[in-house]
Prior knowledge:
Elements: H1 3-15, H2 20-32, E1 55-62, E2 65-72, H3 75-88, H4 93-98, H5 103-106, H6 115-138
Antiparallel strand pairs: 1-2
Helix pairs in contact: 1-3, 2-3, 3-6
Amino acid sequence: MNIIExxxxxxxxxxxxxxxxxxxxxxxEKGKECPVLPEGDKNESFLIKGCQxxxxxxxxxxxxKVYFKADSDAVITKGIxxxxxxxxxxxxxxxxxxxxxxxLDRMGLKEHLSPTRSNGLTAMLKQIKLYALAFSIKK
Length: 139
């Protein structure tokens, strides 16, 4: 699946749930599926600035594709990170840079997050795009 297909899959999954408590439950479940970030990588160099919770995202370029790992000390934040990692991990750097991110709005996620969590989501997305941009320039 490409980035757009993964985004559409998430939009369908979340849209199928009419209650936001069910959507939060799904978000928490997605967080449990997130690729684990080793304890040694939970340091300042991978810490996302601007998040209410502590969240770390690490990127690695392997065989021309970017792979992400993340962790957070908050379950909702980890779920948000997991959604972003699902969509963007395993993709080519330029595809990540060029990818639209309107799927988050179509899921209704931003409007149901507190302002500080919404800022954290924006910060995570920005960092993922920056990692991809840096890897695309290195090529």
